[in-house]
Amino acid sequence: MEFSWWLVLLAGFAGWFIGYEKLRHALSNLPRFLGRGSRSDLSTLLPDHNDQVERDLELNNLLEQYAVDDNSVELYLTLGDAFRRRGEYSRAIGVHEHLLSTGQLSEDQQRTVKLELARDYAGAGLLDRVESLLKPLVLDNPRDAASQESLLRLYEKQREWELAFDLASISTSMDPAERNAVKAQYCCELAAVAELEDNLPQMEKHLQRALKSEPHCSRALVMLGRYSIELKQYNKAISYFEAIETHHPELVPEIAESYFFALHAVDDEQVLRKHLDYVRGRQNSYSVIKLARDAIGKLESEQAASDFFIEQLAMRPSMKGLRDWAEYELKTTKSQDKEKVAAVVEMLRDVTDEKPVYLCDRCGYRCKQIQWLCPGCENWNSVKVIIGAEGE
Ligand SMILES: [Zn+2]
Asked: For 96-114, b where at least 16 C-beta lie within 10 A, e where not — what string?
């Protein structure tokens, strides 16, 4: 088993254990806070108790018998949190709804419990209840960052991008730069929907709106560059790709093919030569090296292309580059080592085909296609092209 899988298993076990320990701690402390006369055997609430019905009865007894006061609220919250962490949403909901029904909570405590209850509902998939609980919290308290954050996550899940955009505009849970970047992503999501509906003018409007929120939004620049190519506006496409090169050099491999297509299609040799000079003067990712090599081969000579390729590969070695070089050697070599070179090529093909090319720098999620919202940790803009020997 791969080391990363061991880590995932270990993390999963740790999460389960922490939930269990919290629950055990809360239960062991409850009688002390609830006073004498606790007839119930609270240990039946522990998750390894087999009788589900008995556990539910025990929880109901507990909630019905004992008063909620400042001392016990925290423990009830811990109990509810532990149930939710263990995926026992109906029990978590039972605890939090009971707390609210007592009428004994201060305003602050009510807000805390409502937010917890919204998290229970979200876990249970009762998304309409989450919204009706969180909306008043957000409207009543413009500075309630935790509720804003939870409601934003809900809108993202429901793909309600306009609502998410409006909420992010007033949100205090992010700094201005992060807020603008996230708002731009919501516009890009709206653009992606318009693209699916084949409404390209609408798509462009959303992308321009994204650039108003975040002038260097990489996703909007990528989409606008590709859209300009569709409209055969190649110079415009090149200017969008140049902006990516300047502000998001890590994303150049993502647009390299479209970029070189536009450079060829603009049908002005000087534009292509100027770009190749620029590429020659720096280290490049594998995709750029490969495309520039093809262009040099056509514009100049096969020898010039090969020299450029070897020089660039030496500056930034990569498995993919090595594979291409070995493939070229296989075609040209006449020596009796041909079989050995073929074996190396085969091995490099296997290794490079298996490698994902994108990696989230927050959670380590790997994938073969760019994801603007990481499926692993739900952060925007955290998935990047892998640069280095195993990637680009
Ligand atoms: Zn992630």
From this structure: bebbbeeeebeeebebbbb
